[in-house]
Amino acid sequence: MVRVQPDINRWRDTATDITLRDGDVLLIPKRENYVMVSGQVFNQTAISYRPGRSARWYLSQAGGLTQVADKDAVFVVRADAQ
After folding, report:
1. pLDDT given at position 4
2. Which of 18, 27, 30, 44 is 20 to 30 A from 3 (CA-CA)?
């Protein structure tokens, strides 16, 4: 995990200024505390985390599963909070 400071001048040309190469992927989430819904849903999206909401609720916010989705293969990946 790389934490990027909002002020680019604080980390430009320092050891934390990482060089990317062809094939590298840099994913910058829109905001903290979100749930990323991806796969065979109608609208892959990031949704603000809401305590107490179920995986089914997040799926519904993404438009639900498509007809080709394998309902038995749905899974949740949880990030460790620090």
Report:
1. 65
2. 44
